[in-house]
Specification:
By secondary structure, the protein is an alpha+beta fold. It is 34% helix and 17% strand. The chain has four helices and ten strands; from the N terminus they run ββββββββααββαα.
């Protein structure tokens, strides 16, 4: 039942980073303030049970969920962003392969991976000093992400249409018309 307190869990993370709409849960109990996050906060997973460590260290930029408050599970940590760093830029920097590989290398465990948060602090990222440059870069990357998402949705739709058409062909509900070509 939706409440005014959203709850982000590991299922709220896309593999490799980003927000998955299907992962949002709701809380009916009070939550400690240390687990509360707000829009544009960056959180990342410190636990992972995927086969290829696709979640551990993956960043999530908290979107505007239209709720009074949003909390994160104990499988996630909130990143404290230094002043002068644009959170959206940092989010995209953390999604890049070098950062993802660094985070994966800081995870240990066999079935369940756990991220060494202290060791993760050693990650060095190239960040332009000018906040306007960071904002411009993140705006371009946001648009590119939106285009990729739209194309992915279109691909899913086309695959479903293909599947439906194949089913109609196999059941005989639809016939293929072959034009006779005079040679």
């Amino acid at each position: 039942i939706p409440t005014n307190t959203g709850f982000l869990t590991l299922k709220s993370l896309l593999r490799g980073g980003g927000y998955s709409k299907g992962g949002l849960k709701y809380l009916t109990t009070d939550i400690d303030d240390k687990f509360l996050v707000k829009e544009e906060d960056i959180v990342f997973a410190v636990t992972d049970i995927t086969r290829d460590a696709e979640i551990v260290g993956a960043p999530l930029l908290v979107p505007d969920l239209g709720l009074q408050q949003v909390a994160i599970s104990m499988d996630m940590v909130k990143l404290v962003v230094k002043q002068g760093v644009v959170p959206k830029f940092l989010y995209f920097a953390l999604k890049r392969s070098p950062a993802r590989n660094f985070m994966r290398s800081r995870a240990s465990g066999s079935t369940v991976l756990h991220l060494d948060v202290k060791g993760s602090k050693k990650l060095r990222l190239p960040i332009p000093k000018d906040a306007r440059e960071q904002e411009a870069i993140s705006e371009v990357l946001t648009i590119a992400d939106q285009e990729v998402e739209a194309l992915s949705e279109r691909l899913v739709w086309l695959k479903q249409e293909k599947k439906a058409l194949m089913q109609q062909l196999l059941t005989g509900k639809r016939r293929v018309k072959v034009e006779a070509n005079a040679a």
